[in-house]
Structures are given as structure tokens and as C-alpha cells.
Amino acid sequence: MSLSRPHEQPLKIMATWFSLCSLLYFLVSPLPGSFMTLWPMGMNIFGLSVRCINYLWLKDPSQFHRMQQSPSMDAKDEKTGTHGYLDALDIATTFRGVGWSFEAKGLPQPQAISPVAFAASQVIGALGRFLILDFAISYANAFVPSLDNASIPLRLAFGCLMMFYVRWSMDIPCRVLSAIAVLFFGSSPASWPPLFGSWSEAYTIRRFWSHTWHQGMRLIAEAPVNFVAHSLLGLQKGTYVSQWAKVLGNFMMAFLDHAYGRVMGGGDVVSDWNMFILHPIALWIEETTREGLVACGILDKDKRSRTERYLGYIWVGVFNCWTFLYFMEGAIRVDGNVPALADGLIEPPFGASLVVPLTRWLASR
């Protein structure tokens, strides 16, 4: 973030080449590990490299400010000052920009809570989520050997499980890390808002991605997408074409991020392509349909009725369950295989299980 002066251009170029070479290295020198170990690792490597390139070339470092939480817990005041090396490291590695002027929009509001209570709640939440995942996956592996002849309702049920799988496989490590940071390293609970938002927001595809799901892709995609849309293509801000070009661009950046990790994990990037091309199409259909119904006087432009919301929950739930099932190919055996498993349907969360050895022990008694 300090390589902005003319005489530092060689260092800036060197840092850029290092990021690009890192991306190439991990593709040509794959690491050992299961799919659900390498896939997230690859996404983090890609995201870190792209964020560094964004900060080097597409963002103005002078616009980076620490944000100080106000006593009301609602407003945030800018705190100016010089940046040190730890600040630079934080900017380069932050997932959602929490505490910075570029913090991702739509993050859940932090709650006032003591460090001990916060750490305890995070650990209990992580353990509870792991046990639920472990039980569900162990049951599936024991009683559902294949989805080849599975009915649509069963596939939707497994799609729902895989949506929670990917959500909680991100949420659990974040909870543990936040508990350690707050309890032992003096971090503030306000610096660790929930990684995911409320399911009550997911009555449209747009709100699912902008509120219910994590906001980690914003810092990766926003700068390059805006650069391509406005600087390269010359699209005027606020226009219909510009709006949807940026929506598609954000999903394409998500595709690149997930596809890079999937290649590292030995998977097929078609799963990522289908996921991140179907969702912007569904979003466009969803919003275009509503605009038409508003124009016909059937729906209110500014307010959604309870019926509309309930229908939205059903639509988003079914669509997400179906797409997440195939998106998680590699962790679940849908059409291909699960590299980490000789048999069974789903790779255990974090490669470990408490339920399986416990049931074997109980059966042996």
C-alpha cells in the first residue's frame, strides 16, 4: 500500500509478478490433500493474490482509513493516520475489510458482548455445527450409497445439506479463530461480525448473495469489475447495461476464484461455471419478472407482501438446493467421484468424524 511513489514502481511490478507467479506455481505444483482441503486453500490463494494486485494497481492507498466503532454500535467514524506494516498486512489479507473504510456492505451488525462470553458462544457454535454436519454426513454415507436413482426431493435434501456444508465449513474455522483472537490476543468482538447473514433475508437471489451469504467476494471482484466496466468498456455508471454487466462480472470473478481452487483440488471447473452463470441469469429473470408485475399493477414497487416473501423463500430455497448439489461435486459423489473416499457419498467435514468411531464403539459393545 506504500508502493505509490514513482521510484517504487520496480517494487510494485515485482510484487505483481510475485502474485502472478504464485498463482501459476500452485497450479503446476499441486499440493497433497483432500478436495475439501485443497479447494478452499486454492480459493484463498487466488483471493489473496487478486486483492494484492487490486491494492497495487486499482485502488488509491490514500483512501484507506481505519474505522472506529462508535459507542452507539450503529455509526462508524473514520480514524485517520499513517499506516504501518501490520496495517498493510491486514489490508492485504482481510476477507471482508472489517474495520476499514472499504468494509464490505451488508455485514451483520456486531453485538455488545464481553470477550469471554463472545469466545464461549463462538466455540459452542462451532462445535454444534460440526456435530450436526458430522451426524448428517455419517448417516448419508451409511445409508445412501449413491444418488444415481435418487428422486428430486431427495436430491433437493442433499443439496440443502451441501449448502450448509459449504457454509459451515467456512463458518466453523472463523468462529474458532475469532474466539482465539479475542480471548488470547486482545482483539475486539466487534472486529468479528458473523461471517454469514440471516436466512430471513434470502427471499430473493440478490438478497441471498448480498445479505445471507458471506461478502468475501466483494473485495476481490469490485475493483477489477469496475475497471473493466467503466475504464475499458466505457459503460456509464448507473445505466441498465452497466448494472447488469457488473453483476455478471462479479459472478465471473467468483467463478475464477472457485475454479482455481477446484483445479488445485482435482475437480471439474464445469461445476463452478454452471453455478456462477446460472445464478446471475436467475437473478435477472427474478428482477425482470417482478418489474413486469409491478408495471402491470400486480405487485407494489417498494413493498413486498408476506405472500410474495414466502413465495420468494420457496423459489430461492429450491433453486439454491438444486444448484449447490452440483456445485459441491468433489465433496459429494453426484456424477463423478470423491477423491478422498474409496466409498461413501460425502467427504467428512474437515476430514474427521466423531460419530463414526462412536457408533462403531457402541456396536462393538
Automatic annotation (TrEMBL):
Name by which UniProt lists this protein: Wax synthase domain-containing protein
Record carries keyword Membrane: yes
Subcellular location: Membrane
Main location: membrane
Keywords for this protein: Membrane, Transmembrane, Transmembrane helix
Naturally occurring in which organism (per UniProt): Sphaerulina musiva (strain SO2202) (Poplar stem canker fungus)
Superkingdom of this protein's organism: Eukaryota
Ranges annotated as spanning the membrane: 12-31, 37-58, 310-328
Start and end residues of each Wax synthase domain: 192-273
Membrane-protein topology: Multi-pass membrane protein
GO CC, alphabetical: membrane
